[in-house]
């Protein structure tokens, strides 16, 4: 599903928004081209590009001082026609000639070629740079249509734009553009195909858990379908064909582009670039400049492409030249300083080795609880997805993955166990759940640190649980009935305190507290949330057990039998 007025008007409707929000872009609807609103200085080379719509911000987002002069947009994934290109080129010409930057697709090549024939009738000098960077369609025997033109197009547009802006003539701008095009290769992967405006189905079927290597930017399926790969392996699969095609070797210098295909989050692109930086460093290939973001898309395809461009001092100077094109990033790093070492995010826990225990009651209790939470992460995530924002299971794993569960079970003292769990939550989980579970376990640590009983007697457990409950309600304001972890903690704490007053033994008291917490957790299923993320979705959260309350129920249940 896409935002639209109608599928037929999708492209012109989108162009209205672009033009209205940009200072230096003007639209000529008949026959259909975009130009800079500010004319070029007389004698300057004009750069004209274009292609099917659906690849935005390429090309329209790169109109501006230092880049393109005019752009001819076609319908979705369809080449512009020759008359669009002819008229757009005439409007862009400032007397220095017109350079066409064309992606290697049959329709684009043909229509731009016809337009140059018409421009010659008008006595306008023209030339062309053909961008053919996609190694997925490269054939060893040279047969077929050859490599498709993809993300390297914007590298050519940037460098040629800088060359024209400094006053180079048409022959020189063309020479530089052709050099860059010949020095660039790309390859792309899709995690999910795109869907065209008005279409009921995606451009190809891709089962869950599989990825498509070598896809095209017009929604074409790839050259190979494989099971999902970890990022380091995926980067290697994308990069090796590029290195081979360019004959890159140790000591070579490149511009590295990691490009999103329309529905890929910036964090994913940054992660891929981190892997690319490591991999190229292993090959002895030096990254001189970087470009990371969403620039050449296939509508709403989830995926990414990697582009490498062999470079030299002249190309780097042109790359670094300023541009006012709205889609070009304005704060890129001028020099690549290398990839930092891999590190975890958050503080490292250093256990107190002055106090140890062997197979303590608390060690078995907390180890069993943590192991269950880690095992049940998908179920917890699903609960939170239905009742909140879907990050609860991820937050739990972010914290508990920091723990040495075997040391908790067999080595750590009681105080060290609770210190470790508390610090894991406070330093790694984040969000409301991290803070509340962190402070909950902090009170158990404080009681254990002050207790002479390494095993924690019933009174100590009740004291810690009461202090934790009071702190949680003070911090978050939740009460019983609000559909939070408090709905499980309150009955458990009340049960513990009753057991202390009646003189019950620890095992029986913990079993009663576990039953009370479980009943409290189950009661949240029918509640309407008044606190937490679930309160934002109203009735949609009714019928779902609160995951925080469920974890508290598991916490007390894990104590039984140790």
Fold and architecture overview:
The mean pLDDT is 92. The chain is α/β, with parallel strands linked by helices. The two termini are 53 Å apart. The longest helix is centred in the last third of the chain and has 20 residues, at 431-450. It is elongated. 45% of the residues lie in helices and 14% in strands. The strands form 2 sheets. Strands 1-2-4-3-5-6 form a 6-stranded mixed beta sheet, with helices on both faces. A 6-stranded mixed beta sheet has the order 9-8-7-12-10-11.
The global form is elongated
Write down the Rg: 31 Å
- The helix tally amounts to 18
Main beta sheet: 6 strands, mixed
How many strand elements?
12
Termini separation comes to 53 Å
What is the averaged pLDDT score?
92
Explain the layout of strands and helices.
Layout: H1 10-20, E1 25-28, E2 33-36, E3 46-53, E4 70-76, H2 82-92, E5 98-103, H3 106-121, E6 126-131, H4 152-165, H5 170-182, E7 184-192, E8 210-213, E9 224-227, H6 231-246, E10 253-260, H7 266-283, E11 286-293, E12 302-310, H8 313-320, H9 361-375, H10 377-387, H11 392-400, H12 405-410, H13 414-429, H14 431-450, H15 458-476, H16 486-502, H17 506-523, H18 547-559
Parallel strand pairs: 3-4, 3-5, 5-6, 10-11
Antiparallel strand pairs: 1-2, 2-4, 7-8, 7-12, 8-9, 10-12
Helix pairs in contact: 2-3, 4-5, 6-7, 9-18, 10-11, 11-13, 13-14, 14-15, 15-16, 16-17, 16-18, 17-18
